[in-house]
Task: inverse folding
DNA sequence: GTCTATACCACGATAGAC
DNA sequence: GTCTATCGTGGTATAGAC
């Protein structure tokens, strides 16, 4: 029946809501939240300005919806990879745990490559509203990393552990964000978009860094002192 | 004479141009280029909208002027520190070179604490215009790091060296940017604003990471492969 | 319920008065 | 050097078509 055929075509076509989410994901990833106008998004999605208000209310809630669509699958993937490692029934290596944290976030596909960059870039965005939003959506994921890694460094004091975590996030988010800065040094032929290659170099980098010894505070390490001791 | 007194007061007062630069530096550091309006800046600087056009032409050129004011002194400071190390007349340690790269950028003072965060945050900004601007202003500084570090790892192939550089920038810029993300894990009492403390932990982290061995490509490193060892 | 058309005020940029 | 008026565009809100 023609009516059936027509409705099937309608169902196969992507809804306005999803077209808006897809266009917003691409554009926010490329230009940041404040670098994209709602009108750019509706043009790319072939939609009307009011459709954004109807489906998402505000630009910020559209941004949030873009993130939420992928957040749960990513969380699930991390959980699955960690469990698969644990199922081996032996003590895990630090490198394996780092892999479980990074691989799901680094992985690219036709569907979520924009999300990978968006996640990295939005996580480094200074805007207070964006920072609040990221903390709201991803706080559980943030907590997973220290919870799992702390086991490997039980003797380490909190200050050192937190600084190493801080550096860890810098590496993870910067590689995810893939802003092209390294290409200004290494040249445009240097490809940072392949997750398997990234993991090959980032994991040994981070593993060695976490295992690094820090000189005890009392010791007179020349590195910790100021050059001019003039101001008290 | 009252005229003299008045003119001295006038001279002691900061010029509109400098008030605009100071206000813009603070606000851009906090909210990012696109997160601040010119009208916010002129309110904070007690200036008029037209004064921005007169002194800087556009918002983007005001942003550029904010960066340029501090860029040359920072470059000079890096050069000075490197030379002071070289003057010791011996082979440098990797840690000393890292210190020369990081300390001038991390150092905080009443005058440039906002600049430190602005530099880190703007360097991670995805907006194409900002990226172009940063490359234009700081390309020389970018090049200094690989030029100096390459000497320590002459046997390392380019791919590995560039990936390690990529991670290095992630750590440096994220620590500089000081976005407060780590505080959502470590708590608000965790202080990341002290350059001497940051250097104490970041330098051993990076030094160990740079020295880390990466398994050769041909070798069967389990980390480079997919999770399921089913094949073979 | 889903979307279109339109109006509102704040924004960046410009021209020109003072 | 400084300020005002104005233009096109931005995010948001709403009335109403379907």
Result:
């Amino acid at each position: 029946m023609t009516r059936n055929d027509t409705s099937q075509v309608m169902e196969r076509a992507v809804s306005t809501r999803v077209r808006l989410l897809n266009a917003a994901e691409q554009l926010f990833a490329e230009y940041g939240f404040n670098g994209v106008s709602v009108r750019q998004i509706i043009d790319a999605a072939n939609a009307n300005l009011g459709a954004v208000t109807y489906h998402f209310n505000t630009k910020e809630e559209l941004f949030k919806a873009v993130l939420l669509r992928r957040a749960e699958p990513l969380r699930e993937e991390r959980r699955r990879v960690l469990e698969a490692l644990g199922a081996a029934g032996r003590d895990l290596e630090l490198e394996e745990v780092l892999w479980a944290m990074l691989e799901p976030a680094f992985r690219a596909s036709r569907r979520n490559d924009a999300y990978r960059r968006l996640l990295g870039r939005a996580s480094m965005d200074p805007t207070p509203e964006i920072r609040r939003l990221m903390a709201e959506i991803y706080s559980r994921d943030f907590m997973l990393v220290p919870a799992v890694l702390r086991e490997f460094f039980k003797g380490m004091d909190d200050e050192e552990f937190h600084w190493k975590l801080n550096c860890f996030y810098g590496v993870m988010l910067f590689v995810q964000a893939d802003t092209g800065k390294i290409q200004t040094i290494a040249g445009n032929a240097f490809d940072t978009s392949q997750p398997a290659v990234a993991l090959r170099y980032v994991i040994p980098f981070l593993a060695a860094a976490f295992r690094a010894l820090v000189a005890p505070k009392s010791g007179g390490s020349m590195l910790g002192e100021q050059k001019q001791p003039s101001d008290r």
DSSP finds eleven helices and no strands in chain A.
